[in-house]
Each structure stands twice: as C-alpha cells, then as structure tokens.
Write a structure and sequence with these properties.
Keywords: Ribonucleoprotein, Ribosomal protein, RNA-binding, rRNA-binding. One of its GO terms (molecular function) is large ribosomal subunit rRNA binding. Belongs to the universal ribosomal protein uL14 family. This is 50S ribosomal protein L14. By secondary structure, this protein is an alpha+beta fold. The protein folds into 2 domains: 42 residues, no CATH class; 113 residues, Ribosomal Protein L14 (Beta Barrel). It is built from 3 helices and 9 strands. The chain has a 5-stranded mixed barrel with strand order 1-2-3-4-7. It has a two-stranded antiparallel sheet with strand order 5-6.
Length: 166
Amino acid sequence: MAASFVSKCSRGDCSLFRGLGTNVSNLLSTATRMTWSNFLSQHQRTFIQMRTVLKVVDNSGAKKVMCIQPLKGRKGARLGDTIIASVKEAAPNGKVKKGAVVRGVVVRAAMQRGRCDGSEVKFDDNAVVIIDKQGQPVGSRVFGPVPHELRKKKHVKILALAEHIA
C-alpha cells in the first residue's frame, strides 16, 4: 500500500503534492530508499553458520576466525553456543597461530535474542572467545561487553574475565 502510494506520487500523479514541485517527490523516494535499506539490514542478520567470519575478543593471539561448524548438530549458533573455527588472522607471537582449528564460544551476535523479561539483546558485530577442549578460555582477558546469558550455558569463567556484562 505504501509502496504504491510512493510510486504514484513520485511520478507526479498525486494531486496532494502537485503544487509543491519535485522536492516532495525526491523526499519520498529518499524515504523509500532508506526504508528499503533498513529492511535489508534487518533481514541480513542471521545466526552464526558455516563460513561466517567472526572477530576474536580475547588476548589469545587470534584476530579473526571463520566458523567451520556449529556444535550440537544445529544449522547455526547463537549467543553462548560453541563453534569450531579456523583462525584466519593472528598476531605473530600469540598462543594461537594462523590456520589452527580451534573451538570458540559466541559472545556477541548481530541477530537479536529475546530475554525472559521481554527485552531483546543484539550487538553490532559477531564475536567469539577461543576456548580449549575443557571449555576454559585460552586468553586471560575478554574485551567488550558479554551477555549474561553465558551463565546459563555454563561459561562462568568467560563472565569472570569480561570487563562489561550486558
């Protein structure tokens, strides 16, 4: 309905805006483009799946990892889930080297997650903390905010290392 109204007015068929000139039609087409870009940005936010590149937010030495497989046999991973990833960028003298296959816990995801109190949490980027096979973090610091949903997933050590809990 709104799209048909905008298309009629942008052609000049709308008698309501006929006397105002082309400024209104330009404004409407700009509003349509902005609405469309907001729509696309909201629907491109999916959960962490294969080949998703994530930022590493600890001091283990890795900078970026690519998800190989989410664990638990699901199609994708969300906040607090464990993934298997390959290190794509790493610091030269870190604990983790480029090309290593590591496990990680998703601590920030761009896809929104509902909380039991009715609020929703979502972040600007996808981020991970690298862990070992026992589930302990490899690094000794965690940068940026970490959601408190990690407590339910038994990642209390990551919460203890985090500087801010969201």
